[in-house]
Design brief:
Layout (H helix, E strand, L loop, with lengths): L15 H13 L14 H13 L3 E5 L2 H11 L7 E5 L5 H8 L3 E5 L9 H7 L5 E5 L8 H11 L2 E5 L7 E2 L2 E2 L6 E5 L12 E5 L2 H10 L15 H4 L15 H12 L1 H19 L6 E2 L6 E2 L4 E5 L5 H13 L5 E2 L24 H8 L1 E5 L6 H19 L14
Parallel strand pairs: 2-3, 2-4, 4-5, 5-8
Antiparallel strand pairs: 1-9, 6-7, 6-11, 8-9, 10-12, 12-14, 13-14
Helix pairs in contact: 1-9, 2-9, 3-4, 3-7, 10-13, 11-13
The chain binds pyridoxal-5'-phosphate.
The site of pyridoxal-5'-phosphate (PLP) has 15 residues, from α3 and α4.
Length: 407
């Protein structure tokens, strides 16, 4: 019986160009973004300029983390304590966490079997809300044209969480470019790796001026190169609190060559995704996630559904796959494991049960897909999953089962 021996948490090394750029910053000693020699432009400022050009955004701000970008966007948009902020029931903890961190209250909107926000549920819950923090969770992108129509008609400002969609598009338009602000993460498990880090983009001068002031720019915002003009800062420079969360030049230096490679990396992720998808088609009991034609996704992870399965059967699939080296995460477990928390795990935010969402989450299996996996690795993983899902689904448990836990 074949066993997979790769690591689901091993990313690729930083490209040589990034290491050299990082060494130059280290040798200079000027790691802080505003610590520049005469005539020098900080790596952080160059990164912002690069990412703005790459996304077509007018403005960009580099910050300390994706979660910081989210909270900073909310603050820039003028969120008030106690305000209701719409967001996805299916997302990662930093999203409701960012809302809670500014004293606002997450209002969870359900998820469809396509793993995107349920637009009917959004319409039903939208009344009175001013802000939607939309999470393109696990890289699944909803019908953005329909979502923007719905939100524009109600005067709802959309902030996009693009932690899983750097380089991804809907109908040819990049995520992060539909809403008023787009937030990205450059944390190790996302699409570019600086350990920790975040990027925020926008076309709106007032929002970006406030975001830059919030991030801790003191009165040095004129050192930014992807920033609105000084007039945009004038009304806010003395009234906007400093909530320090800047990116440093070291991380920026590591990121710039990675961003240049992004398109090629996206292709490599999707090749891996398609091999897995192909290997799992028509597996009895297993539902693949439909990927609409308009969705130009970037797959750094893989999801499938074991819809309406008994919890014990799902646990058996997890245990049997783990015993063969395939590490799965399950969003239906009674207690969150690693990143699998769900709307009802975040007990600081009120929520009513959502049966249709619960049905999806109860059957939702997730797997990381690092670029260190070869296409043959992906084919092997698919063979193992296919065999184990089929065995459990057909009640053929004669193959030895270990007691290894999937977490
Ligand atoms: C990782 C992640 C974030 C936040 O990113 P950090 O850089 O870790 O703060 C936000 N949203 C989602 C969906 C994420 O996976």
């Amino acid at each position: 019986m074949e066993r997979f021996t790769g690591s689901f948490t091993q990313q690729e090394p930083i490209p040589a160009e990034g290491i050299e750029a990082a060494l130059r910053v280290l040798h200079s000693g000027r790691l802080h973004r505003y610590n520049t020699a005469p005539g020098e432009v900080a790596e952080a400022a160059l990164l912002e300029e690069d990412f703005a050009a790459q996304t077509g955004a007018r403005y960009c701000l580099a910050v300390a983390s994706g979660g910081y970008a989210l909270a900073c966007a909310l603050r820039a948009a003028g969120v008030q304590p106690g305000e209701r902020v719409l967001t996805n029931a299916f997302t990662l903890a930093p999203v409701p966490g960012a809302i809670a961190s500014v004293g606002a209250v997450p209002v969870f909107v359900g998820v469809t079997e396509g793993l995107v926000i349920d637009l009917d549920d959004l319409a039903a819950k939208a009344s009175g809300a001013r802000l939607l923090m939309l999470s393109h969770m696990r890289g699944h992108i909803c019908d953005m044209a329909a979502l923007m129509r719905l939100c524009d008609a109600r005067g709802i400002t959309v902030i996009e969480d693009c932690a899983h969609t750097m380089g991804a598009t809907w109908a040819g338009r990049l995520t992060g470019r539909w809403g008023a602000m787009g937030c990205f993460s450059t944390q190790t498990y996302k699409h570019a790796n600086s350990g920790e880090g975040g990027l925020l983009i926008s076309d709106e001068p007032e929002l970006m001026a406030r975001a830059i002031l919030l991030s801790g720019s003191y009165m040095l915002y004129d050192r930014h190169r992807a920033a609105p003009p000084p007039e945009a800062f004038a009304p806010h420079r003395l009234t906007t609190p400093n909530v320090s969360g800047r990116m440093d030049n070291l991380r920026a230096a590591i990121l710039r060559p990675q961003l240049r490679d992004l398109a090629a990396q996206c292709t490599r992720w999707n090749e891996r995704y398609r091999v897995l998808e192909q290997g799992l088609t028509q597996t009895p009991g297993l539902t693949l996630i439909e990927r609409p034609d308009q969705e130009g996704f970037v797959a750094s992870s893989f999801q499938f559904l074991l819809l309406d399965w008994q919890a014990e059967a799902i646990q058996a699939v997890l245990a049997r796959s783990a015993a063969r080296g395939v590490e799965l995460k399950w969003f239906g477990a009674p207690e969150p494991v690693a990143f699998t928390s769900r709307y009802d795990s975040w007990t600081y935010a009120p929520s009513a049960p959502m049966p249709r969402t619960d049905r999806v989450l109860a059957g939702l299996i997730d797997m990381r897909l690092p670029l260190t996996f070869s296409l043959e690795d992906c084919a092997q993983i698919a063979r193992i999953l296919r065999a184990e899902v089929s065995a459990v689904f057909q009640g053929d448990l004669s193959a030895p089962i270990t007691t290894a836990r999937a977490d």
